[in-house]
Amino acid sequence: MDSLVSPVLDIVTRLCVCSSKLIASIYSLEDNLQRLREQRDKLNRNRNDLWRRIEDAERGPRTRRTEEVEAWLTSAERMLSQTDVIMEQGNRQLQNRCLGSCCPKSMLSTYKIGKQIVNKLESTSRLIDASVGFYSNPGAIAVRSPRLRLLMPELLVENTVGLDPTVERVWRCIEDVYTRFIRVRGIGGVGKSTLLKKVSNEFHNRDHDFDFVIWAKPKVSRQEDYIEKVQDAIRKKLDISDAIWNECSSEEEKGAQIFSVLKDKKFVVMLDDVWERFDLLRLGIHLHINRNWSKVIYTTRSVDLCDAMGAAQETLEVQCLPQEQASTLFRMTVGENVLNSDQQLSELAEIIAARCGGLPLALLAVGRAMASRRSPGEWRHAMELLQSNPSEIEGMGSHVFPLLKFSYDSLNNTTAQDCFRYCSMFPKDCNIRIDELIDLWIGEGFLDGSKPRDQAEFIIGTLKLAYLLESDESKQYVRMHDIVHDMALWLARDQGKNKNKVLVTKGGTITFEELTKWEEANWISMLGSRSKAEIDHSPACNHLSTLLLRDTLLESFPHGFFDSMPALRVLDLSHNQALVELPANMGNVRTLQYLNLSSTGILELPATFTNLRNLRCLLLDYTTNLKRIPKEVISSLLLLQVYSKINGLFEATTTALGDDDEVAFLKVLESLNHINKIGITIYAAPSVNKILNSYTLRSCIRRLTLVECKGLITLCFTQELGNLESLQIFGCCLLKEFRLSECCKLGNLRQVCIGVCPLLLNLNFFAYAKNLESLTIFDCESLMAVTSKMVAFPGLKTISLTRLQNLEIICPSPRCFPSLSDIEVSQCSSLRQLPFDSEIANFLQKIRGETEWWDGLIWDDDTVKDACQLKFLSISCGPLQRKKDQASIGASDQEWTRQRKILAPEFFIDKVKGMTTIMAESALIVVKSWNDKIEAEGGVAFAELKIDNDLGSFAGDVISRACFEINYEEGEQIFMEIKALKDIMAKNIFLRWIPGFRPSLQQNDSFFGQGILGSSGEQWARQRKILAPEFFSEKVKGMTKLMVESALMVVKSWNDKIDNESGVTELKIDDYMRSFSGDVISRACFGSNYEEGEQIFMKIRDQKSIMAKTIFLQWIPGIRHLPIKSNREMWRLEKEFRALMLKVIKERKETITPNSDKDLLQIILESAESSDLGQEAKNRFILDNCKNLYLAGFDTTAISATWTLMLLALYPEWQDKVRAEVLQICAGELPDSDMLRKMKILTMVIYESLRLYSPGSIVPREAVKDLEFGGMQVPKGVNVWIMMVTLHQDPNLWGPDVDKFNPERFSNGVSGACKLPQAYMPFGVGPHTCLGQHFAIAELKILLTILLSNFRFTLSPKYRHSPIMNLIIEPQYGVDLFVRKL
After folding, report:
1. Neighbours of 242 (CB within 10 A)
2. Torsion, CA 524, CA 530, CA 535, CA 538, rounded to 10
3. Which is nearest to 212 in space by CA: 130, 296, 281, 129?
4. How far apart are CA 312 and CA 306, in angstroms?
5. Is 773 helix (H, G, I), strand (E, B) or coil?
6. How many Å apart are CA 1056 and CA 1071, to the nearest integer?
7. How far apart are the first and last CA of the chain?
8. Cα three-residue angle 664-666-668, rounded to 5 degrees
9. Distance CA 799, CA 793 (A)
10. Four-point Cα dihedral 583, 589, 595, 596, nearest 10
11. Which residues of 1041-1074 are buried (b: 16+ CB within 10 A; e: fewer)?
């Protein structure tokens, strides 16, 4: 029975199970379908997310997806497709139900569909589970294929010294993904090729991701073959077969073939010794398409090429070796065994190494030549040869000079080559005055253009760009590297084949043998020997074109000396004081074009000078014995271009002509058609007027000296004197003032000397001499200020002030003379302050003056005083008259306490009670005003009022009546008088920064603390000295890349928003801007990012909000100690900020290593640790400065960016203009510092935005002495608040469109936008100007550049315009924009 029942039960059980499944499949169809839909969406999301991860991974070099992930993606695609079909069938089954949608019409088909859905649920679940492994193991997504073989073998490199730091700099550029083009430049032979070899070898020693490393230095005889040769070198390294290469019929096809190989690879191409500009596309290299951050590195010895290529993002200059390193390289090359063989050799080696000028090529060549010589006599001979004829040293003529000659050959201009060779006439280490050099070139006949001086300037620039000439700091002189000079002399001597063609010798008795050499010479130079030159007979110099006998104590010439020089064009006899008579036959040298007789003792010019019809340059400076120059002589010199006769200031006026004769002489000069350069001394007022009224004379004057011009009361410069370089005025006893019209320009004026002008009142005409370099003033007893104008003289280096009895001020601000290096003050008893801040004090080299005067100076800042004390040199002089008032300027802590003791009782409660009547009366005035306005509206119960001015009137009336016994209308001038601003700016050195809005904010527990924003005096100067260098322009340039990275994070965030909202999104941009600025300041200064520092930012921001609401409560005595709500909140936030910041500091200290890159936080930490402060004081120093930097660098930049974007959204035409400029300059690349400098329209927009919405609103200052502003007396100790908002929107300063957004007003800079440029102060004014202003402007430019390159903005209707003062001016409700992708 059991045997029968068991099978039956089994069958029944199985049927029940099947039935239950069948029923479940049918009646759970809708639920299963919904589950499948959810599973399908989840699978699709996983697939999309995995795709993005794969795309990101595959952007890396040699990276591809794994087979496993590829199989999963295929399965997922198939599963999604199948699932869609089944879901469609399931939906149809649900729609075909009957009986009130309860029963399926076909049980069988419904069962089949339901079963498929259940199966797909299981399959999709398995696929989803499989995808989890890809997230947990990134290596399962993509793998990196093995690197292709390097195409450069390790190169042999000769001995090097000092190159390793430069190699490291290049490698850092290679590792930087944003740097694609790297150029290495320098003089020939300095080691550029060696550097490139060492860099190439580094690819064998360091880890990197490059597929190809290609070196190309083809040997070409013609530049036209360069591209072809480089292409051939590259294709061989890429293993492109000859068969494929030979099928390419053109340069373009070959470039395309190279591009097809490199386009998907990450590579480095190194091009050595590039000479001419070419497009990399011609080679087949297209870095803008390549996404693998490939690099091109090229070396060149042409600065011009560096600028012309225009693509390089990093430029590294290889310099000659300093003496110590040069000596080391030379000794390594010679060998210590040779140098140790004789004691003298080591000393001689130092001298020879020095004469190689630090050029590695010369050091190696000479070192190898001396490696086998052990005799001191041989070494001394080599030393002499290196000085006189270096081409005879082995290797110099055969290797060094030919290699350097490539720079000479590349000039491609025979005139430039002639001019370069001519420079060999000057001694080594000689600074050659550019003006003098041009005159010599003109005289030699090298310059044949219609404007020879312009042509000469261009040639000098060309020689500098080719490293054949070097410029000095003043840009008035050039010099040649010693080895380049040797090469120039070698070239001038036909590459050493004709040694007598150019003779550069010392003075002394010239022997018969030496005079015989003259007969072969073209150029002869004897300069500056100060040895007596004696010439005993006349050689036949038929080829001689230049004879320079300068400063040789020459007394006379033998008979007929100049008769034997038929080709002579240049003659320089200057600085031979003993030469008093010129031979008559000098006038027979009709080819003469240049004659320099300056500083000689000649008494007259021979009558035969009228024969010098070809003379172009005549120089007669300081010829004190030459009383008269016949007009007939000058009028006969029809080709004369340069004339100069400058007399010394103290020469007797007997050298002067009469008034009429002087004017007549000027008329002769004026009549010369080719004259273009004049230097002259004038003794009569009519002559001055003649010059100023003559266009020819005015435009030709380069040096002008006025001596005892009687009757000269006012010197009126009404026209342009654009070429005037030197102005000297002496003994003009009636001269009172200078007048200059707006069209008068003195752009080339570099030297000014004014003396013995007792009535002269001011020198404000300096405002038109922006390039002034040297200023000397003496014996001008009425002069009270050198300049009272706020104008910068960026090039002024030296000032000498002597016997100026009433001089009280040099200039109103340290910014006037930012480059001042040397100042001398003698017998200026009224001068009690020097216009120096800490930066100027550190830059200064010398301060000379009497000790008594120095001891009586008044200083605002002891740090500045200490820095200047180190530069002070005492000079001897008679005793100075001290001023009676020797009181120190500047309120110290004791002085502040004394003032508070005087003022505080007036604000005690009892006193305040007595003022309530005044307050009530002032309030009733407001009530009356409002009642009048309501009645004017027709008697309604309300009126629309703008209350700001009324409340300002109330406050002004109360303070005026309570403190000064005047009403608001009288006192309004003190608060609102704009014209007083000029005086405020002029006397800014007497206004001291009020730290953190005194009084109570100065305390240690205040918001600002004692950081850079809350301190003054010595403490402020010390902190600024620590922090300021980190925000100098060069430092800011190095931070642009991290700014770009932070801006790209904003772009990514906005892109994600837009992608999720169908191409356009509405954003409140404020937090994005704060995130950007917070990330930048965190990374740049504190080595973290915004996310890590977000809590710190929020604490500071909350403190700032409380501070803004309660700022005026701070003047209530004792208020800061009371536990009111705002104080409790401030204390809590300060405690939390302190804890967070100390945690950051602790973590930083634990991670600091000797090799750590220093950021600002580490510098602050090191400064605190090196001080003698206690631990609590150190912590406070660190915390206060960190908070100040977070505050200054966070909200201000973010809010400025927010306002600017709002304005660009409101004015789309300006948005389009800026975007067009950005796209043109960046050309698809990320912005760098060079690009930012070119963005003029963007700069204008930022300046206008900062004008309308300055981050700050008030600049607080305190008078440190009794002052007068615009006729108002301001006693010492009075606070002066400069209202930036008022100044920036005053129509008297900015014009009638002051309320409009018009960036065009800044097209000519701030000076062109505002009648008083000093009124524009978005970053403050005076010594306390924001030290991070360059940093902030760079942030704004980069952020706006990147956002404008990616998006278009319009204002959202949600935006409510409501600027609010919250310590800084910010939008109360934020800024809402619609943002679209371009």
Report:
1. 9
2. 30
3. 296
4. 8
5. coil
6. 16
7. 86
8. 75
9. 12
10. -30
11. bbbbbbbeebeeebeeebeeeeeebebbbbebbb
Determine the 3-state secondary structure of 72 from DSSP.
helix
What would the pLDDT profile of 885-912 be if each residue is shown by its tens digit? 322 223 344 444 455 555 666 666 556 6
Q: What is the predicted pLDDT for the residue at 288?
A: 66
CB of 1093 closer than 8 Å to CB of 1078: yes
**Residue 1203 structure tokens:** 């306002």
Separation between Cα atoms, residue 958 and residue 907, nearest integer Å: 13
Closest CA to 1226 of 1135, 1347, 1360: 1347
Question: And the tokens for 909?
Answer: 């409660």
Report CA-CA distances (Å) from 1127 to 214, 554, 1117.
Answer: 67, 88, 14
What is the DSSP track for 654-685? GGPPPHHHHHHHHHHHHH-TT--EEEEEEEEH
Structure tokens at 180: 């694609």
Closest CA to 786 of 771, 261, 802: 802
Output the pTM of the full model: 0.56
Rounded-to-integer distance, Cα 1083 and Cα 162, Å: 32
**DSSP-derived pairing of the beta strands 991-993 and 1368-1371:** unpaired
Q: Which of 89, 78, 92, 95 is nearest to 115 (CA)?
A: 89
Query: What is the rounded distance in angstroms from the CA atom of residue 1224 to the CA atom of residue 1217?
Result: 11
Sign of the dihedral defined by the CA atoms of residues 30, 36, 37, 39, in that order: positive
Mind giving me the DSSP string for 572-611?
E-TT-TT-----GGGGG-TT--EEE-TT-------GGGGG
The half-sphere exposure of 284 on its side-chain side, counting CA atoms within 13 A, is: 27
Segments of the chain scoring below 50 in pLDDT: 1, 12, 15-17, 99-100, 307-310, 652-655, 877-897, 939-941, 966-977, 986-987, 989-990, 995-1005, 1115, 1117
- The residues with which 412 forms a beta bridge, in sequence order, are none
Q: Which amino acid is at 17?
A: V
Predicted pLDDT at 526: 86
* Conformation bin of residue 967: beta by default, left when phi > 0, alpha when psi is -120 to 50: beta
Outline where DSSP puts E strands in 435-569.
Answer: 470-471, 477-479, 502-504, 523-527, 546-550
On the CB side of 283, CA atoms within 13 Å amount to 23
Among residues 985, 1048, 1077, 1046, which one has the least CA distance to residue 1332? 1077
**DSSP helix/strand/coil, 418:** helix
Amino acid of residue 996: G
Distance in angstroms (rounded) separating the CA atoms of residues 1289 and 1253: 10
Dihedral angle of Cα 354, 357, 358, 361, to the nearest 10 degrees: -110
**What are the distances in angstroms from CA 315 to CA 197, 404, 1038, 1359?**
18, 22, 13, 46
**995 touches 1008 (CB < 8 A):** yes
Amino acid residing at 734: L
Spatial CA neighbour of 187 closest among 87, 298, 308, 320: 320
Residue written as tokens 């000769």?
158
Q: d(Cα 787, Cα 770) in Å, to the nearest integer?
A: 13
Structure tokens at 960: 């005026």
- Please, which residues bridge with residue 269 across strands? 214, 296
User: Which structure tokens are listed for 618?
Assistant: 């005549």
CA 479 – CA 1253 distance, rounded (Å): 50
Rounded to the nearest 10 degrees, how much is the dihedral formed by the CA atoms of 335, 338, 341, 343?
A: -70
As a whole number of angstroms, the distance between CA 595 and CA 572 comes to 6
Q: Is the peptide bond before 999 cis (omega within 30 degrees of 0)?
A: yes
Strands 798-802 and 774-778, how do they pair?
A: parallel
List for the chain the helix, strand, coil content (%; round to 5): 50, 10, 35
Alpha-carbon distance 770 to 31, whole Å?
85
Give the residue among 462, 484, 470, 475 at the shortest CA–CA distance from 302: 462
Tokens (6 digits) for 1023:
């902190």
Residue with tokens 């998907």: 264
